[in-house]
Amino acid sequence: MQVNDGKVRVRFAPSPTGYLHIGGARTALFNWLFARKNNGTMILRIEDTDRERSTMEDVDRIIESLHWLGLNWDEGPFFQSERKDIYRQYAQKLLDHDLAYYSDEERGEHKAIIFKIPHEKVVVDDCIHGKMEFDNSLIKDLVIFKSDGFPTYNFACVVDDALMGITHIIRGDDHISNTPKQIPLYDALGFPVPKFAHVPLILGKDKKRLSKRHGATSVQAYEQEGYLPQALVNFLALLGWSPGDDREIMSLDDLIGAFKLEGISSSNSVFDDEKLKWMNGNYIAQLPFEKYKEQVMPYLNCAMNGSINASCETVDYILRLMQSRTRLLSDIGELTGYFFNDEFEYDAKAVEKRLLKPGVIELLQNIAQTLEKIEDFTEHSTEQALRDFVEKNQISGGAVIHPTRVALTGVMTGPGLFEIMFALGKEKTIARLKRTVDFIQTLGVS
């Protein structure tokens, strides 16, 4: 039965032949935003007529990825493999009206059915590209049913979009060549032609179509790397679409309120990994701490092989220090490793720049002695002790802070020095200063 309720109806129609690609996720998002903006309906349709490549495992992966992104649909999922009888009825209608014919070749149980393409011009007023003209005299007659008894993509797609009342077809530019083949089918079957909006491709920085050689390309891979779904959705929405101002961090409500098909660029978009990481870091920083901890702890446990040698209070303190510095949840092991591993390696550049200067050994020894005298080892007390040390010895604060940081962490960047000391505690802080002295001496520096 054909749906025609006068409201906006869109569909996301993936083929279950792999993971949900980032380009497919953006197409799903644009459909979802358009439906929500217009109080419409979004349908999920699984186009699984490719029997050799389609799997239920991939169906599950696609559905899981859509759920993770928060792109809930209103109807479906519908499976084309379960609708063969419907397609057969409409193919028979074309045969009955002499608009299609059987192929002379018989390769299986069935004969292929071929639609007669009218030799005329097809004009499409695309919502993104504007007016497009096609000369169908250059197109061969179209196979609509294969000899294996399954419909082809172009035919099943037209029948489903018509019967499901789809008003707007928002899909990738790679489907533009299918449009002049599909419109004659709508006309031949007496179906209204929906509006088309073909979304340009996503390219890598080398301006070639985004693929595995550019890194992660599936939604599941981004989830595993430690991206937040709200960050990925925000980034994808702005990949080829603009709200018309300079906003970059936008909530779902913001995106829905601003979304228009006319805001989608007709040019291809370049995927910027660094921009996505920056955006993800912003979203991580905005998480309530308990939510951040819940999401980041699996990555920390994995990095530490399930053995974290610190109290719960200390772990919380360290995670709070790192929340605003975390761009990917999976970075947490590298960011915090030195807190939990006393045998960390020193960064070579840090050693050369901070530890090999004359007098560093004596300096670290004196700092250790100064810290040993502190009874209540806190951020405030360590800071005050080192300020007094700097003033007493008439040296710069940097001369103390820089080598001490490398001694305690092995690197030149990170949280504040006194926060690091407090997280490590008095015993570990002093032990690491002494360990660094021994390390420098092994290099033959006095």
Core attributes:
446 residues, mainly alpha, 3-stranded parallel β-sheet, 3-stranded antiparallel β-sheet, 12 strands, 11% strand, elongated
Short description:
This protein has 446 residues and is mostly helical.
| Extended strand count | 12
Cα-to-Cα separation, first versus last residue: 88 Å
Q: Please write the string of helix (H) and strand (E) elements.
A: EHEHEHEEEEEHEHEEHHHEHHHHHHHHHH
Strand content: 5-15%
Low-confidence blocks of residues: none
**Alpha plus pi helix count:** 18
Specify Rg, calculated over alpha carbons: 31 Å
User: How would you sum up the global shape?
Assistant: elongated
Helicity, in percent? 40-55%
Structural class computed from helices and strand pairing: mainly alpha
Average pLDDT number:
93
Q: Biggest β-sheet: count, sense, barrel?
A: 3 strands, parallel
Question: Looking across the biggest beta sheet, what order are the strands in?
Answer: 1-2-3
